[in-house]
């Protein structure tokens, strides 16, 4: 059986001709969120290779990363790019992505990974939390049927990816013997990296492509992208985000209750690029 046949869904199952363009065409905030997400997802092959190298010798995890995770992440990128091109055909997606890739490819390096394999898996849980909750929020925001279908598929994929990374995290936690404090620090580091790099780079290259006359105008960049971030922030699934972020800490119930509010603030930072 081919790998494509084993995918939970395929690009061919999305009928982009059915997009109700009138419902989304006017929404620049949604455009910025979808296009920046399509850029990051389309760079999955680079950070997959970084992870495959990082887990040298762990054949089971390497195989899953290269034969499953990478294919699904790249499919997310292709699907989101196809949606953007269908609704906003005047946007030169290939040119924008090439510009994004030139910068992102230089900073997406193995040096960003945690030295400990187990802590890197905890950090991966943070990334998957961010993506799962991003697509859940986008799914809640839109009433356009094709985008609703697409973001539902991607959200389900990301939740499943989270579970897979979490299962391997538990195995490495037993092998490496690190405690909650180190896990918590790894979570904080990855939240800050997401905030400062991936999303900001992607949004900046979407902005530069849309407003070349404003390139380098930080005030206008923050004004335009701030609206999009505000839309996302208002639709964050807080309970889902906090639950997923806390899970690797394996906290007693009373500790988890005490941390829910401050962690909700931390969760917001996943979306404040």
From TrEMBL:
It comes from the Bacteria. This is Ferritin-like domain-containing protein. CDD domains: Ferritin_like (cd00657). The lineage of its organism: Bacteria, Pseudomonadati, Pseudomonadota, Gammaproteobacteria, Lysobacterales. GO terms for molecular function: oxidoreductase activity.
